[in-house]
Amino acid sequence: MRKLFKSCYALDQKCYEQYGLNEDILMEHAARGMAEYIKGRFEEGASVLIVSGPGNNGADGIVLARQLFGAYEVHLYMPFGVKSPMARLQLERVQKLGISLCDEPKEADVIVDALFGAGLNRRLDEATQQLLHRLNALNGFKLACDVPTGVGSDGRLMPFAFDADVTITMGALKESLYLDESKDMVGEIVCTDLGVSRERYEDQSDTFVLDASDLQLPIRTAASTHKGTFGHAAVFCGEKEGAGIIAGMAASRFGAGLTTLIVHEKVSQPPFLMHTTVVPSSATALAIGMGLGAHFDQEFLDKYVIKSHLPIVLDADAFYSKELLGILEQNEREVVITPHPKEFSVLWSQINGEEISVDEIQCNRFEMVRKFNARYPHVTLLLKGANMLIMQEERLYINPLGTSVLSKGGSGDVLSGLIAALLAQGYTGLEAAIQGSLTLTLAAQNYKGASYAILPTDLIDAIQYLEMSQK
Ligand SMILES: NC(=O)C1=CN([C@@H]2O[C@H](COP(=O)(O)OP(=O)(O)OC[C@H]3O[C@@H](n4cnc5c(N)ncnc54)[C@H](O)[C@@H]3O)[C@@H](O)[C@H]2O)[C@@H](O)CC1
Ligand SMILES: Nc1ncnc2c1ncn2[C@@H]1O[C@H](COP(=O)(O)OP(=O)(O)O)[C@@H](O)[C@H]1O
Questions:
Q1: What ipTM goes with this model?
Q2: What DSSP assignment string belongs to 141-182?
Q3: pLDDT band at 294 (very low <50, low <70, confident <90, very high)
Q4: What are the pocket residues of ligand 1 if the criterion is a CB atom closer than 6 Å to any ligand atom?
C-alpha cells in the first residue's frame, strides 16, 4: 500500500525548508530516476528524443538529456523555448556540454515527454495538441516525466494527453494519475525519489494505492473447525436470478462455510448452494440488490433486511430503493455499498435529491466519494470503475489493478459475493471491500484466456489459484 497525494508542492517545500535541499538537487534526482529506467531497458547507443517544455517539467527533461548525453544518442527538442529560471539554467549547462537542439521531433527508440507536468493549468492550445498527436504517432517507447502532458492536476484530460508506456513520477504518487480518465494515458506508474527517501519526502496522507501485496486471503489455518466456523452468507436472488446465483457461487468459493440463496420461487442453483424463502437464523451476512428487481415485497424486506443487524452488501437494484437505502443511516451495522457510476448517480439523487450525471461523477470520482463519506463515514463505499475507489471513515483506497477483462456483465455480482463471503467470516466492511476488490482484480489478471472471453464462472474459478500465485 502506498500513499497518494493531491499535489507534491508542500512536500517539495519541506525539502527546501527542513532538509536544506534546493530545486537543482531535486531536479538532478528527478532526471536520474528517468535515466535509470532508460538504462535498465535500453542498450547504450539507443536514440532518445526528449521533448522539453518551458517550465520545470521541461527542465527535468533537459537534465535528463545531460545525464544521457555521450552514452545515448540524445535529441533535445524544445518547441516553446524556456521560461522558468531553472529551465534556463539547465539549458545553459547542456549547451556548454555541446548538446544542440533539434528542429523537429523525430523517431527514436525512446520518446520522453517533458512538456508540461504538475504545472499544467489550462487546456492545451492547438499547436500543443498537434505536437502531441505527432509524438503519439511515433513508434518509440514512450516515457512521461512526472505526469503525461495533457493530464490535468485533477486527472482530467485537457482535452487529450501524451500516451505513455510509463510515467516516471517525482517524489510521491499523485491522485491525477489514478482517475479513470487518465488510466489509458499514464501506462505503468513508477515513482522516483528526489534525493531523500520516500518516507522522509512524504507526509501523512489519508489516501492510499493498493498493491497486489496487500492481498490477504481467508486462508484456513486452524484444524479443529466445521462449516459453521466460516460463517453463513445469505444472498438474495431476485427477478434476474443469475446475478444472485453468481454472487452465491463466488461467496462459497471465497470461503463462506455455508451459502444460502434467498429466493421467492425455486431457482436452478448449483447443487452446493442451498435455497430458502426466509433468511436462515444462522446467517452471518447478507448481500442484496444483484438482479433484485421488484421481487420481494416491502414487508419481507423490512423484516429480513432492514430490521436485521447483520453485516450487509448493497449492490445494483438496491440503489433504486429508498427503503433499502435507509440502511445507510444504521450506524451500528457493517454496511458495504458497491455502485458503478450510473448506480452512484441514482443513489446520489435518492439521498440528496441532486441530479448528477455519470460524466460528472467520472470527472470527479475522488471528490464524489469524499462527499459521500462526509455524510456517511461509517458506510464503506466502493465506487466501481477502471480504478475502484474504496472509502470509509476518511480513509480512501484505490485499487488500480483491474483490467478491461472485467468489463462484462456478472463481474460485479462476483464482487458482491466475495465481499459477502468475507463479511460472513467476520471481516469488517472496509477489510471485506478491500480484499474482495483485490481478489476480483487479481483473479482477472490470472485469467489466461483472451481478453474478451471471460465469464463470471472463470473469475470464480480463478479465485481458487490465488493462494498459489501468492507464494
Ligand atoms: N520543486 C520543483 O519545482 C520540482 C519540480 N519538478 C518538475 O517540475 C514540474 C512542475 O514544474 P512547473 O511548476 O514549472 O510546471 P510545468 O513545467 O509543468 O509547466 C509550467 C509552465 O507551463 C505553462 N503552462 C501551463 N499550462 C499550459 C498550457 N496548457 N499551455 C501552455 N503553457 C502552459 C505555465 O504558464 C508555466 O510556464 C513537475 O511536474 C516536475 O516535473 C521536479 O523536478 C521536482 C522538483
Ligand atoms: N476496464 C476495467 N478496468 C478495471 N476494472 C473494471 C473494468 N471494467 C469493469 N471493471 C470492474 O468490473 C466490475 C463490474 O461491475 P458491474 O458493472 O456492477 O457488473 P455487473 O453488475 O454486470 O455484475 C467492477 O468491479 C468494475 O470495477
A1: 0.89
A2: EEEEESS-TTB-TTS-BSS-----SEEEEESSEEGGGGSGGG
A3: confident
A4: 12, 23, 26-27, 30, 53-58, 60, 83-84, 116-125, 128, 145-147, 170, 194
